[in-house]
Amino acid sequence: MRVRAAVIEEKAGPFVFRDLHLDDPRATEVLVKIHSVGICQTDIHVRNQDYPVPLPLVLGHEGAGIVEKVGAGVKGIEAGDPVVLSFPSCQECSYCRTGRNAYCEHAFEICFGGSRLDGSNALHWPDGAGQNKAIHGHFFGQSSFATYALADQSNVVKVPSDLPLELLAPLGCGFQTGAGAILNALQVAPGSHTAIFGVGAVGLSAIMAARIAGAASISLSRLGLSREHP
Ligand SMILES: [Zn+2]
Ligand SMILES: [Zn+2]
Asked: What is the 105 CA–ligand 1 centroid distance (Å)?
């Protein structure tokens, strides 16, 4: 199908809107019509080639939208479902098989490889576009800076239909990073004192999570400007 995507064509270059072709979903894949997508610092790191992800590339890894079509092997997700797209995992390594998908052995290739794990790519230049470098997608299993994204069932999360997708999109990376650090990794206990360095989307999410966890104090530091809230 024809999609429109924001493409990074050169290191530190601008996002250029291009018409591309996106293949149909494979057995475990989910085609999502993107409604909203957050911009995370990691998108900008990759645009600047701090990570060696091949260009040209469609970035975007905080997508949210409506399921358009699912592969034959997808269970529990169907066309019309509102979903948030998060990070993918291989589902087969020892970490994935024991529920620790965030530590997937293939996390780097699957998120930053610019292709599926088998090296294939669902995004193509349309016939006659005259481009001599293959376009890369599957960034964090989605490449959601586009009108449609192809995710895997491992990184699709169904959400209630009465919640605004534009607010849910950043849950896929930035918000869960900040909240997960507090609630899962640090397991902040009620009455704890918490310090958060950096108050962007991740830090603000950590603040909300620390409040929910019952932290007695939350100290913030940003660009030399420090504040403390009871
Ligand atoms: Zn991110
Ligand atoms: Zn894995």
From this structure: 18
